[in-house]
């Protein structure tokens, strides 16, 4: 028996893990690209980027490249999930926020969620906090479609 796939339902089109930097602290990102054919324009191709570890100069450059690549491939919205991000060098925060703004300028938008108090303080120290579009809830991108394969839970 072959099950029919609904061509109009949201589906996870791609998931990949990126090693942003190596070493003692290291950083990685998981990119989950989803296509939603029935969504309104500007929300048909979205990506969730989950960051882990410590963002150093190498990780920041690779993350900027990843965001530029997503924009070039037609991703319209990004949810940048920082719940598992431990640290970012506050001197790098302005460059990261510039990359987020650059992505937002050529797409429908980017939302940052899951920033800990520590990370918010680092962005504030760098003078970048007012420029971040933050949310504590991933419902903006219909969290039911972002079920994690490993944990079976949806982000909150």
Walkthrough of the structure:
- The protein has 156 residues and is α/β, with parallel strands linked by helices.
- It has a six-stranded mixed sheet.
- Residues 143-156 have low confidence and may be disordered.
- The protein starts with 10 loop residues before the first strand and ends in a 21-residue tail after the last strand.
- The longest helix is centred in the middle third of the chain and has 16 residues, at 57-72.
- The chain has a single domain, classed as Transcription Regulator spoIIAA (2-Layer Sandwich), CATH 3.30.750.
- It is globular and about 40 Å long.
- α2 (93-106) links the parallel β4 (77-88) and β5 (109-113).
- The chain contains three helices and six strands; from the N terminus they run βββαβαβαβ.
- α1 runs parallel beside α2.
């Amino acid at each position: 028996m072959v099950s029919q796939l609904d061509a109009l339902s949201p589906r996870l089109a791609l998931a990949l893990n990126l090693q942003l930097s190596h070493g003692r602290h290291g950083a990685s990102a998981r990119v989950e690209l989803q296509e939603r054919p029935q969504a309104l324009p500007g929300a048909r191709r979205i990506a969730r980027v989950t960051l882990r570890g410590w963002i150093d100069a190498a990780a920041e450059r690779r993350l900027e490249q990843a965001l530029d690549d997503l924009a070039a491939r037609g991703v319209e919205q990004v949810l940048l999930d920082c719940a598992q991000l431990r640290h970012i060098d506050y001197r790098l925060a302005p460059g990261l926020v510039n990359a987020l703004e650059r992505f937002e300028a050529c797409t429908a938008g980017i939302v940052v969620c899951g920033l800990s108090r520590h990370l918010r303080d680092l962005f504030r120290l760098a003078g970048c906090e007012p420029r971040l579009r933050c949310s504590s809830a991933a419902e903006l991108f219909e969290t039911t479609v972002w079920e994690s394969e490993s944990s079976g839970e949806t982000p909150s």
